[in-house]
């Protein structure tokens, strides 16, 4: 018949009954309580503060200092930092090698030094002396030496045999306890970090949702529709339509680099700046607006942040479209069954402070359709990893015969989804259609 494994409490009781000498029986309950507490606590602070305080009281210690492993070094904790003047014990130091080899309490005395002390550096000896060390206790865990403690008794007092046996058992409990507590702390910190990231994502999502138009403006002779789908919780695409004081319809589609709160804030800057510039530059050409926008974005963002953008201004009186393409995917203008790629412009926004741009003005006649999109549309993939590409979008634009802009958007998406066949996409998708009625 196989014996049942002993519980932690029974193991400790057996240890105390077998190992303690009669002179130690007076402290048996105290020792048992300490070992149980060390074995059960999941708090790193308790292991570093509360438990040492109880151990010091039980053994009548004059000092108890803990050093923990951080990467490959062993670093003093708490008040021990000041006593050692910031000295840390490298893994290759004689002190650490001794503790790893012996795995049991090791005495430290300058009067009759052991062999390992003769190999120790002067900085090690000075640090141990500053800590008032008389005894070094290793904290051995499942993954090696997790740390160690220096202990001392008042002058003239010595560690008794039963106390050394207790400390030997304590060193194992502390090693495993420190491992567990460090793991619990790491999980807790990761939970806090994830909560912070989630809060940032929620904020970025809220910012983004407020930036996208809740309804599209009404302009005589123009039918418009748009769709946006983020690949992640917070995307980098942005579109906007608004009307200036002169009745001009402004239309913009952009793709901001990166994801998350930083991209959402850059998107907010882009939107607010463009709207403000269009109000103030009442008679200036579209290129002047985009050049000012580029300078503002360059000054407001880091070197790794930029945006591709295409900006259209429709003049109802002249029935024309004036546009600038700043490094964006060329929009497609369908007129009399012919498609024109609109590429006139310049570099992406935010990278070069003095970039210059060109604009182009086109007739926008009844029946014409303008399709603006981001690269998530043309870079959509199927199960084989093949991309839809511009040719796929172009074919969808040419074959559509939709009665409205909204129907045109749905027809294009239907063709895209038929190609992708349910394959998850990795980039945001924005599609905007303007049609002259």
Automatic annotation (TrEMBL):
Broad enzyme group: hydrolase
Domain of life: Bacteria
InterPro entries documented for this protein: Bact_Sigma-Reg (IPR052016), GAF-like_dom_sf (IPR029016), PPM-type-like_dom_sf (IPR036457), PPM-type_phosphatase-like_dom (IPR001932)
UniProt keyword terms in alphabetical order: Hydrolase
Domain PPM-type phosphatase: 219-436
Gene3D superfamilies xrefs: 3.30.450.40, PPM-type phosphatase domain
EC number annotated for this UniProt entry: 3.1.3.3
Pfam families assigned: SpoIIE (PF07228)
Listed SUPFAM superfamilies: GAF domain-like, PP2C-like
GO molecular function, one term: phosphatase activity
Keyword Signal: no
The protein's name in its UniProt record: Sigma-B regulation protein RsbU (Phosphoserine phosphatase)
Organism: Tunturiibacter gelidiferens
